[in-house]
Amino acid sequence: MNAVNFGYMISVARGIDLDRNDLTSARELGDEMPEFRACIACGGCTATCTAGNLTSFNFRMVQTLVRRGEYAGAYREMNKCMLCGKCRLVCPRGINTRGVVMLIKRKLGDY
Ligand code: SF4
Ligand code: SF4
Predict the structure, then answer these.
(1) Who wins on pLDDT, 12 or 56?
(2) Range 19-107: architecture per CATH
(3) Count of helix runs (H) and strand runs (E) in the chain
(4) What is the distance in A from the centroid of ligand 2 to the CA of 97?
(5) What is the pLDDT of residues 18-31, one digit of tens each?
(6) Local confidence band at 1 (pLDDT 50, 70, 90 cut-offs)
(7) 82 lines ligand 2 (CB under 6 A)
(8) 41 ligand 2 Cβ < 6 A
(9) Which of 33, 35, 37, 39 to probe ligand 1 with, by most ligand atoms within 8 A of CB?
(10) Where are the domains of the chain?
(11) CA atoms within a 13 Å half-sphere pointing along the CA-CB vector of 71
(12) Total Cβ atoms within 10 A of residue 36
């Protein structure tokens, strides 16, 4: 099938082929904690994050990568979280963000 010309291109190096990612663990995370799926990636958590102000930690980015099935490094990144809870106070979706951190660490420790 010929590609549709939209007048722009997505760089191959930045392209993500979701069909190649194994989303099993991401689905299991959502099944265990449905609010994990409620994130709209607004970035409020990252903007207020204590650890993010001191390190390269980006909670929104890690959550997004996990939902895409890109788990490598998620456990290590989540270890930067101090569990202070500030992100939970600002989340417009009322997500138990600390719970999400603990869940990702528990489920993705092997990656
Ligand atoms: S503040 Fe809540 S909805 Fe926004 S990116 Fe963070 S977890 Fe997702
Ligand atoms: S609980 Fe973790 S992710 Fe949330 S603001 Fe505190 S350090 Fe950042």
Answers:
(1) 56
(2) Orthogonal Bundle (1.10)
(3) 7, 0
(4) 8
(5) 888 999 999 999 99
(6) low
(7) yes
(8) no
(9) 39
(10) 19-107
(11) 19
(12) 21
